[in-house]
């Protein structure tokens, strides 16, 4: 396997673990991502769509499904009524905090078979990748759909 193959399979390992944790909270991975993204503060829908690499329509559909569960809510921005803000409801915030805690605790399990030095290297490299990634805009021309 070449480097691209390894990255592909690493993404599968991460996505499987993330999906497993999300399911334990009765959420799809996209719902879990949405909740974690708005758990600390409201976010503009347009910015959130760009950060998640989703079309605005796909995000709106995801928000509709999540709002029906009373986990998120939309509101117009106080500064500009054309801007739609998304935030976690009180119930959604509690769920998001528990979910995020579980994700940050258990996602590193994917590196459990590495020795301590390799685990530290993996953490360092993963941090560098995230810190140098532009998460404010879609990373591909193919936005995700829910």
TrEMBL record:
One of its GO terms (biological process) is response to stress. Pfam families: MarR_2 (PF12802). GO terms for molecular function: DNA-binding transcription factor activity. Transmembrane segments: none annotated. Residues 1-131 form the HTH marR-type domain. InterPro entries: HTH_MarR-typ (IPR000835), MarR/SlyA-like (IPR039422), WH-like_DNA-bd_sf (IPR036388), WH_DNA-bd_sf (IPR036390). This is MarR family transcriptional regulator.
